[in-house]
Design goal:
alpha/beta, seven-stranded mixed sheet, 10 helices, two-stranded antiparallel sheet
Length: 298
Protein backbone atom coordinates (compact mmCIF):
# COMPACT_ATOMS: atom_id res chain seq x y z
CA UNK A 1 0.00 0.00 0.00
CA UNK A 2 1.30 3.46 -0.89
CA UNK A 3 1.87 5.87 2.00
CA UNK A 4 -0.29 8.40 0.15
CA UNK A 5 -3.36 6.23 0.72
CA UNK A 6 -2.81 6.02 4.47
CA UNK A 7 -5.43 7.89 6.48
CA UNK A 8 -3.96 10.85 8.34
CA UNK A 9 -4.44 10.04 12.02
CA UNK A 10 -6.07 12.55 14.36
CA UNK A 11 -9.06 14.81 13.90
CA UNK A 12 -8.96 18.41 12.81
CA UNK A 13 -10.52 19.48 16.13
CA UNK A 14 -7.87 17.65 18.16
CA UNK A 15 -5.05 19.10 16.07
CA UNK A 16 -6.39 22.64 16.44
CA UNK A 17 -6.96 22.19 20.17
CA UNK A 18 -3.46 20.83 20.74
CA UNK A 19 -1.93 23.62 18.66
CA UNK A 20 -3.96 26.29 20.48
CA UNK A 21 -2.96 24.97 23.90
CA UNK A 22 0.67 24.81 22.86
CA UNK A 23 0.87 28.31 21.39
CA UNK A 24 -1.25 29.84 24.16
CA UNK A 25 0.18 28.07 27.21
CA UNK A 26 3.69 27.59 25.93
CA UNK A 27 6.07 24.99 24.53
CA UNK A 28 6.46 23.16 27.85
CA UNK A 29 2.73 22.49 28.09
CA UNK A 30 2.79 21.22 24.53
CA UNK A 31 5.68 18.91 25.34
CA UNK A 32 3.73 17.40 28.27
CA UNK A 33 0.86 16.63 25.89
CA UNK A 34 3.22 14.59 23.73
CA UNK A 35 3.50 11.80 26.30
CA UNK A 36 -0.15 10.64 26.19
CA UNK A 37 -0.23 11.30 22.42
CA UNK A 38 2.83 9.09 21.92
CA UNK A 39 1.37 6.30 24.05
CA UNK A 40 -1.97 6.48 22.22
CA UNK A 41 -0.26 6.30 18.83
CA UNK A 42 1.91 3.38 19.97
CA UNK A 43 -1.11 1.40 21.17
CA UNK A 44 -3.46 2.10 18.26
CA UNK A 45 -1.19 2.37 15.19
CA UNK A 46 -0.09 -1.22 14.59
CA UNK A 47 1.22 -0.62 11.05
CA UNK A 48 3.45 2.36 11.88
CA UNK A 49 4.56 0.59 15.06
CA UNK A 50 5.70 -2.43 13.05
CA UNK A 51 7.42 -0.22 10.46
CA UNK A 52 9.24 1.64 13.22
CA UNK A 53 10.40 -1.64 14.77
CA UNK A 54 11.71 -2.86 11.40
CA UNK A 55 13.61 0.37 10.74
CA UNK A 56 15.06 0.55 14.26
CA UNK A 57 16.25 -3.06 14.05
CA UNK A 58 18.19 -2.16 10.94
CA UNK A 59 19.66 1.14 12.11
CA UNK A 60 20.46 0.07 15.68
CA UNK A 61 21.86 -3.32 14.69
CA UNK A 62 19.78 -5.18 17.29
CA UNK A 63 16.14 -6.07 17.94
CA UNK A 64 14.13 -2.94 18.72
CA UNK A 65 12.57 -2.74 22.16
CA UNK A 66 9.22 -1.14 22.97
CA UNK A 67 11.10 1.75 24.56
CA UNK A 68 12.93 2.32 21.26
CA UNK A 69 9.69 2.49 19.29
CA UNK A 70 8.16 4.83 21.88
CA UNK A 71 11.23 7.08 21.65
CA UNK A 72 10.97 7.05 17.85
CA UNK A 73 7.31 8.10 17.93
CA UNK A 74 8.02 10.70 20.63
CA UNK A 75 10.80 12.23 18.52
CA UNK A 76 8.40 12.50 15.59
CA UNK A 77 5.79 14.09 17.86
CA UNK A 78 8.42 16.53 19.17
CA UNK A 79 9.36 17.62 15.66
CA UNK A 80 5.65 18.09 14.90
CA UNK A 81 5.27 20.21 18.05
CA UNK A 82 8.24 22.35 17.05
CA UNK A 83 6.69 22.74 13.62
CA UNK A 84 3.95 24.92 15.08
CA UNK A 85 6.56 27.34 16.43
CA UNK A 86 8.76 27.26 13.32
CA UNK A 87 5.84 27.96 10.99
CA UNK A 88 4.51 30.78 13.14
CA UNK A 89 7.98 32.37 13.38
CA UNK A 90 8.25 31.92 17.16
CA UNK A 91 11.84 30.66 17.13
CA UNK A 92 13.49 32.93 19.70
CA UNK A 93 14.08 30.01 22.10
CA UNK A 94 15.25 27.60 19.42
CA UNK A 95 18.93 26.85 18.89
CA UNK A 96 19.50 26.11 15.19
CA UNK A 97 23.10 25.73 14.05
CA UNK A 98 24.31 25.36 10.47
CA UNK A 99 27.07 23.09 9.17
CA UNK A 100 28.55 22.90 5.68
CA UNK A 101 27.10 26.19 4.45
CA UNK A 102 30.17 26.71 2.25
CA UNK A 103 29.03 23.78 0.10
CA UNK A 104 25.88 25.73 -0.72
CA UNK A 105 27.22 29.27 -1.04
CA UNK A 106 30.04 28.19 -3.35
CA UNK A 107 27.49 26.90 -5.86
CA UNK A 108 25.10 29.83 -5.47
CA UNK A 109 27.92 32.27 -6.19
CA UNK A 110 27.81 31.05 -9.80
CA UNK A 111 24.29 32.44 -10.13
CA UNK A 112 22.95 29.21 -11.64
CA UNK A 113 20.67 28.11 -8.84
CA UNK A 114 20.86 24.86 -6.92
CA UNK A 115 18.82 21.75 -6.14
CA UNK A 116 18.65 20.74 -2.47
CA UNK A 117 17.84 17.10 -1.75
CA UNK A 118 16.42 16.45 1.69
CA UNK A 119 14.61 13.53 3.32
CA UNK A 120 12.12 12.64 6.03
CA UNK A 121 14.98 12.83 8.51
CA UNK A 122 14.36 15.34 11.29
CA UNK A 123 12.61 18.58 10.38
CA UNK A 124 12.09 19.99 6.93
CA UNK A 125 10.72 23.16 8.53
CA UNK A 126 14.14 24.25 9.74
CA UNK A 127 14.97 24.72 6.05
CA UNK A 128 12.06 27.14 5.82
CA UNK A 129 13.48 28.96 8.83
CA UNK A 130 16.85 29.07 7.06
CA UNK A 131 15.09 30.28 3.92
CA UNK A 132 13.85 33.40 5.72
CA UNK A 133 17.45 34.63 5.95
CA UNK A 134 18.74 33.07 2.74
CA UNK A 135 20.22 35.49 0.19
CA UNK A 136 18.14 33.76 -2.51
CA UNK A 137 14.60 32.43 -2.56
CA UNK A 138 14.06 28.83 -1.40
CA UNK A 139 11.16 26.89 -2.95
CA UNK A 140 10.08 23.40 -1.90
CA UNK A 141 8.76 20.75 -4.28
CA UNK A 142 6.49 18.60 -2.15
CA UNK A 143 3.37 16.47 -2.00
CA UNK A 144 0.27 18.20 -0.68
CA UNK A 145 -2.36 15.92 0.84
CA UNK A 146 -5.67 17.50 -0.30
CA UNK A 147 -7.91 18.68 2.51
CA UNK A 148 -5.87 17.12 5.31
CA UNK A 149 -6.23 18.57 8.84
CA UNK A 150 -2.46 19.05 9.05
CA UNK A 151 -2.32 21.00 5.77
CA UNK A 152 -5.13 23.29 6.90
CA UNK A 153 -3.45 23.83 10.26
CA UNK A 154 -0.14 24.65 8.57
CA UNK A 155 -1.88 27.24 6.40
CA UNK A 156 -3.39 28.82 9.52
CA UNK A 157 0.00 29.07 11.20
CA UNK A 158 1.73 30.43 8.11
CA UNK A 159 -0.67 31.91 5.50
CA UNK A 160 2.25 32.39 3.09
CA UNK A 161 3.38 28.77 3.42
CA UNK A 162 2.28 27.57 -0.01
CA UNK A 163 3.59 30.66 -1.80
CA UNK A 164 7.02 29.04 -2.06
CA UNK A 165 5.76 25.46 -2.47
CA UNK A 166 5.68 23.75 -5.85
CA UNK A 167 3.10 20.96 -5.59
CA UNK A 168 4.11 17.58 -6.95
CA UNK A 169 1.80 16.63 -9.80
CA UNK A 170 0.65 20.16 -10.67
CA UNK A 171 0.71 20.96 -14.41
CA UNK A 172 3.26 23.76 -14.10
CA UNK A 173 5.50 22.14 -11.46
CA UNK A 174 8.52 21.42 -13.65
CA UNK A 175 8.23 24.75 -15.47
CA UNK A 176 8.35 26.56 -12.12
CA UNK A 177 11.39 24.53 -11.07
CA UNK A 178 13.18 25.51 -14.28
CA UNK A 179 12.26 29.19 -13.91
CA UNK A 180 13.39 29.33 -10.28
CA UNK A 181 16.74 27.73 -11.06
CA UNK A 182 17.22 30.07 -14.01
CA UNK A 183 16.85 32.99 -11.57
CA UNK A 184 19.64 31.55 -9.41
CA UNK A 185 17.30 30.33 -6.65
CA UNK A 186 17.19 27.17 -4.54
CA UNK A 187 14.69 24.38 -5.22
CA UNK A 188 14.36 21.61 -2.63
CA UNK A 189 13.04 18.06 -2.86
CA UNK A 190 12.50 15.27 -0.35
CA UNK A 191 14.32 12.51 -2.18
CA UNK A 192 13.59 9.44 -0.07
CA UNK A 193 10.08 8.93 -1.50
CA UNK A 194 7.83 10.19 -4.31
CA UNK A 195 4.11 9.33 -4.44
CA UNK A 196 3.88 9.85 -8.20
CA UNK A 197 7.05 8.07 -9.32
CA UNK A 198 6.54 5.72 -12.25
CA UNK A 199 8.23 2.30 -12.19
CA UNK A 200 10.86 3.58 -14.63
CA UNK A 201 11.61 6.46 -12.25
CA UNK A 202 12.52 4.17 -9.35
CA UNK A 203 15.90 2.70 -8.41
CA UNK A 204 16.10 -0.19 -5.96
CA UNK A 205 19.30 0.07 -3.95
CA UNK A 206 20.85 -1.12 -0.68
CA UNK A 207 19.77 0.89 2.34
CA UNK A 208 20.47 -0.06 5.94
CA UNK A 209 20.98 -3.71 5.10
CA UNK A 210 18.00 -4.21 2.79
CA UNK A 211 16.72 -3.35 -0.67
CA UNK A 212 14.55 -0.23 -0.89
CA UNK A 213 13.01 1.91 -3.64
CA UNK A 214 14.11 5.51 -4.12
CA UNK A 215 12.87 7.97 -6.76
CA UNK A 216 15.24 8.98 -9.55
CA UNK A 217 13.22 12.02 -10.65
CA UNK A 218 15.28 14.68 -8.81
CA UNK A 219 18.51 13.35 -10.31
CA UNK A 220 17.02 13.24 -13.82
CA UNK A 221 15.80 16.80 -13.40
CA UNK A 222 19.21 17.97 -12.19
CA UNK A 223 20.83 16.34 -15.23
CA UNK A 224 18.32 17.86 -17.68
CA UNK A 225 18.58 21.36 -16.20
CA UNK A 226 22.33 21.23 -15.53
CA UNK A 227 21.76 22.17 -11.90
CA UNK A 228 24.24 21.42 -9.11
CA UNK A 229 23.01 19.28 -6.21
CA UNK A 230 23.52 19.68 -2.46
CA UNK A 231 22.14 17.36 0.22
CA UNK A 232 20.28 18.82 3.19
CA UNK A 233 19.49 17.44 6.65
CA UNK A 234 17.62 19.20 9.46
CA UNK A 235 18.33 17.00 12.48
CA UNK A 236 16.74 17.30 15.90
CA UNK A 237 19.46 17.17 18.57
CA UNK A 238 17.22 17.67 21.59
CA UNK A 239 14.41 19.89 22.89
CA UNK A 240 14.26 22.92 20.56
CA UNK A 241 17.78 22.14 19.29
CA UNK A 242 18.48 21.45 15.62
CA UNK A 243 21.41 21.35 13.26
CA UNK A 244 21.08 22.14 9.56
CA UNK A 245 23.65 20.22 7.53
CA UNK A 246 24.54 20.86 3.91
CA UNK A 247 26.62 18.29 2.05
CA UNK A 248 28.03 18.72 -1.46
CA UNK A 249 26.75 16.05 -3.84
CA UNK A 250 27.50 17.06 -7.45
CA UNK A 251 28.47 20.18 -9.37
CA UNK A 252 26.84 18.62 -12.44
CA UNK A 253 25.06 15.36 -13.15
CA UNK A 254 25.59 13.58 -16.46
CA UNK A 255 23.58 10.58 -17.60
CA UNK A 256 24.96 8.50 -20.46
CA UNK A 257 22.51 7.44 -23.14
CA UNK A 258 23.60 3.82 -22.99
CA UNK A 259 24.34 3.78 -19.25
CA UNK A 260 21.41 5.87 -18.00
CA UNK A 261 19.89 3.21 -15.72
CA UNK A 262 23.26 2.31 -14.17
CA UNK A 263 24.18 5.99 -13.76
CA UNK A 264 20.93 6.70 -11.93
CA UNK A 265 21.36 3.64 -9.70
CA UNK A 266 24.86 4.84 -8.78
CA UNK A 267 23.55 8.32 -7.92
CA UNK A 268 20.71 6.96 -5.82
CA UNK A 269 23.15 4.61 -4.06
CA UNK A 270 25.34 7.59 -3.14
CA UNK A 271 22.30 9.44 -1.82
CA UNK A 272 21.04 6.44 0.18
CA UNK A 273 24.53 5.88 1.63
CA UNK A 274 24.62 9.47 2.87
CA UNK A 275 21.11 9.14 4.30
CA UNK A 276 22.03 5.86 6.01
CA UNK A 277 25.04 7.53 7.67
CA UNK A 278 22.83 10.32 8.99
CA UNK A 279 20.26 7.78 10.21
CA UNK A 280 22.93 5.89 12.13
CA UNK A 281 24.16 9.14 13.69
CA UNK A 282 20.60 10.19 14.67
CA UNK A 283 18.60 6.95 14.53
CA UNK A 284 15.33 8.25 16.00
CA UNK A 285 15.07 11.12 13.49
CA UNK A 286 13.95 9.24 10.35
CA UNK A 287 10.16 9.35 9.94
CA UNK A 288 8.86 6.87 7.36
CA UNK A 289 6.23 4.95 9.33
CA UNK A 290 5.23 2.53 6.59
CA UNK A 291 6.82 -0.61 5.05
CA UNK A 292 9.87 0.83 3.30
CA UNK A 293 11.94 -2.22 2.41
CA UNK A 294 11.27 -4.96 -0.11
CA UNK A 295 12.34 -7.49 2.52
CA UNK A 296 10.59 -6.27 5.70
CA UNK A 297 11.52 -8.12 8.85
CA UNK A 298 8.45 -7.08 10.80
Amino acid sequence: MSWTTERERGSAHLLRLTCWLTLTCGWRIGRLLLYPITLYYYVTASGPRAASRDYLRRVLGRPARASDVLRHIFTFASVTLDRAFLLSGRTERFAISVEGLDALTALLSRGTGCILLGSHLGSFDVLRDFGRTSPVRVSAVMYRRPGSPMSRLMETLDPDLWRDVITIGSPDAMLRVQENLARGEIVSFLADRDPDARPDRIATVDFLGGRADFPTGPFILAAVLGAPVVLFYGIRLGPRRYVVRFEHFAATITLGRATRRDDLAALVSRYSASLAAQCRAAPFNWFNFFPFWKDPSA
